[in-house]
DNA sequence: GTCTATAACACGATAGAC
DNA sequence: GTCTATCGTGTTATAGAC
């Protein structure tokens, strides 16, 4: 593994502006090989898992050569890290922006705080990528299988996000004990990730077992249901 | 892939009694090769993911030969299926038993229903296996990566469980609309799985970001927090 | 039932032509 | 920047001795 120049040159290349929501065309110039690899990697890693996915499947989907990944990223592991950064960063920025907007109109109520937490990921997951739910499925797998490559890349920014939102929850509900606020933040994230991942194309579990009552393809319905459930849960007497 | 006799003979072999909680020794006779393979498979699949794990790592951990898996199970895929069945069956039976016990003392309150839903998996996950949380991590991965092998094996029994518990929720809270009951059942499962998987040996995210306030190694605390949050969420006005 | 040996193939990575 | 060819390794699965 020599520190050859193409790798380091490719690693410095911008390719993806921070804070920009994901979409097939927003990993950079859609024609650029690097951008096409990243989007194909999103699809394949989300569908197969990080360890199980192969670079060959990614390059086939991207329509590029196998060697292109090593030229543009240097290694499989670096590709994973850059993908996670490209996914987690914009998503969390949307949440922080939503929280800032809520705070700009005075001290936000609990509903507004929870909406800022769950609204952006649900909407982004459905609207911003070609196939919905890829994004959340990728994050679920980063959690399900802790790996050095994925965790170090994303945990730091998620920790800061959590503390920011817990503080906002505590400000909206001053009677809430600090310990409960942290537990319930975690419960909220769990409910969010589970429901978004639930309804993938093949199974639609909740839709099926509810006899069609729950439309898990409607992001507005998901957000509405999540906010009602989570706010009531946060307000529960310990 | 000829339908040779050893495979089918091995597949019929009982090896694991239904309804028995999981533990290293309860996949069957602890000395039996088949039982040792199953327990090693639980550990390795939970740690690495279904596709990424190799049979070699499983057989090394079980102290058996590589060929033993093919002799006792026939193929990698059948091993996965039998493992999922051995994991999901006993867990859900514990939940149904707990619900039955609650119903035996008259119509159960919502707290009792939720406790029957989340208590058994939390306790089983911590107490019944050598390494805690292996069990839930396995189920999370079965959800995160939909595969024919895992999903068909477990979804049917989970569907029945869901409907049983939603009915119990509706009986405890007659004013609750049926649609909301299904949404909130899914949210409860999401919160449960997320919190149990959160605190694996390396990261302990919630414990860390809460500054040590939340003890995610205490199953009683987890169940208490889950029940408070979920019951309040279920009772939310739509 | 358990082992060794090996077939048949997919993987990540790299060298080197263009 | 992009391709082909290939190396070395690890994988599932099976054949056959014991």
TrEMBL record, chains A, B:
Stored InterPro entries: Homeodomain-like_sf (IPR009057), HTH-type_TetR-like_transc_reg (IPR050109), HTH_TetR (IPR001647), PsrA_TetR_C (IPR041586), Tet_transcr_reg_TetR-rel_C_sf (IPR036271)
PROSITE patterns reported for this sequence: HTH_TETR_2
DNA-binding annotation, residue ranges on this chain: 54-73
UniProt-annotated stretches for the region Disordered: 1-26
Protein name per the record: TetR family transcriptional regulator
GO molecular function list: DNA-binding transcription factor activity; transcription cis-regulatory region binding
Keywords (A to Z) from UniProt: DNA-binding
Organism, as annotated: Variovorax terrae
Source lineage: Bacteria, Pseudomonadati, Pseudomonadota, Betaproteobacteria, Burkholderiales
Ranges of residues in domain HTH tetR-type: 31-91
DNA-binding found in the keyword field: yes
Matching Pfam families: TetR_C_30 (PF17939), TetR_N (PF00440)
């Amino acid at each position: 593994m020599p520190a050859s120049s193409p790798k380091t040159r490719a690693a410095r290349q911008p390719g993806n502006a921070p804070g920009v929501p994901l979409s097939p065309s927003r990993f950079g110039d859609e024609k650029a090989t690097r951008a096409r690899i990243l989007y194909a990697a999103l699809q394949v890693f989300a569908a197969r898992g990080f360890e199980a996915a192969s670079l060959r499947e990614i390059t086939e989907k991207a329509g590029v050569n196998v060697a292109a990944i090593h030229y543009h990223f240097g290694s499989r592991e670096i590709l994973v890290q850059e993908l996670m950064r490209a996914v987690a960063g914009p998503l969390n920025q949307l949440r922080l922006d939503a929280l800032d907007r809520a705070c700009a109109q005075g001290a936000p109520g609990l509903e507004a705080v929870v909406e800022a937490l769950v609204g952006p990921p649900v909407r982004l997951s459905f609207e911003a990528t070609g196939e919905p739910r890829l994004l959340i499925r990728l994050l679920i797998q980063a959690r399900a299988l802790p790996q050095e490559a994925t965790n170090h890349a994303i945990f730091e920014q998620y920790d800061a996000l959590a503390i920011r939102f817990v503080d906002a929850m505590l400000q909206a509900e001053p009677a809430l004990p600090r310990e409960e606020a942290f537990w319930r933040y975690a419960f909220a994230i769990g409910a969010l990730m589970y429901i978004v991942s639930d309804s993938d194309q093949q199974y639609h579990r909740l839709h099926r077992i509810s006899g069609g009552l729950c439309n898990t393809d409607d992001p507005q319905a998901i957000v509405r249901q999540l906010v009602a459930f989570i706010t009531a849960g946060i307000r529960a007497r310990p």
